[in-house]
Write a structure and sequence with these properties.
285 residues; Cytochrome Bc1 Complex, Chain D, domain 2
Length: 285
């Protein structure tokens, strides 16, 4: 600040630097003052109409009592009212009957997409494309059956794969022979030695005499080239599965294969929707 103001009649604040640079005390423009007063009026008006000021245990409600939550709840109620006719039909019909109703099936397909994304896509990928260790849902290869009823049962009750670990009962050579046999089956190759061992070790008891699996047991079809557990070396992967099994108790190298049950997480109607949605990927039987 300058001790001696060289511009006493200018109306400056007295803040002067380098004897020339100074701060003036001119009033703000009228348009600026009008905007300032208008903003004050707006804040007061907003506070009177809408919730605004937080208090110790509550907040000012405003004259309208409006809240974002109440608006959201109203919107949800409106959507639910629109959906109610279809939701009532879903509750009254079986999943198979829903599939037969083109209009209802289309509705379920749209709403099922959200359910699938929230509950299934993390494991089975978008569109049911599958991931390593998690089956593809868009093909016609089903461990526990691909009818709409079987799919619904799988979603509701979950599934837990089970295969005995054979490392303690088979020699390394026998494991090699069986692994080569099942990989060869998937490639259309015949191996009489492997087939004989497959039968003598009673592998057919779970996988069937034709090695095409049994839906009742959830055993895999070994002839189609579709592998739940994929690795760069599929032969080595098959050896591991034979040796250490699937969900075999006490084996640290066993494969893990379990799908959780959704009957306690989703409503019966939502499970029907999921079953129809998965069925319509194209692989349902």
């Amino acid at each position: 600040m300058s001790e001696n103001n060289p511009f006493p009649d200018e109306g400056n604040t007295g803040h002067i630097w380098d004897d020339n640079l100074r701060e003036l005390s001119n009033p703000p423009p009228n348009w600026w003052m009008m905007a300032w007063y208008a903003s004050i009026a707006f804040v007061i008006g907003y506070g009177l109409i809408y919730p605004m000021i937080p208090l110790a245990n509550t907040f000012t409600k405003g004259l309208t009592g409006w809240t974002a939550i109440s608006e959201f709840n109203e919107a949800v109620a409106e959507v639910e009212a629109m959906r109610k006719p279809n939701e009532d039909k879903i509750a009254a019909k079986t999943a198979k009957e829903i599939l037969a109703d083109d209009e209802l099936s289309a509705y379920v397909e749209a709403s099922g997409k959200v359910l699938f994304g929230d509950n299934c896509a993390a494991c089975h990928a978008t569109g049911g494309a599958g991931n390593d260790g998690y089956p593809v849902l868009a093909d016609d290869d089903w461990l526990y059956g691909g009818t709409i009823e079987q799919i619904q049962a799988t979603i509701a009750n979950g599934r837990k794969g089970m295969m005995t670990a054979h490392a303690a009962t088979l020699s390394e050579a026998e494991i090699d022979t069986l692994a080569s046999y099942v990989v060869g089956l998937s490639e259309g190759k015949a191996d009489e030695k492997g087939k004989a061992l497959f039968q003598s070790k009673a592998c057919f008891a779970c996988h069937g005499m034709d090695a095409k699996g049994m839906a009742a047991l959830g055993s895999a079809n070994l002839t189609d080239g579709i592998w739940r557990f994929t690795e760069a070396d599929q032969l080595a992967s098959a050896k591991r599965t034979i040796a250490h099994g699937v969900n075999a108790a006490g084996d640290a190298e066993t494969r893990n294969a379990e799908m959780p049950a959704f009957k306690d997480k989703l409503s019966e109607a939502d499970i029907k929707k999921m079953a129809v949605y998965v069925y319509k990927f194209g692989g349902g039987k």
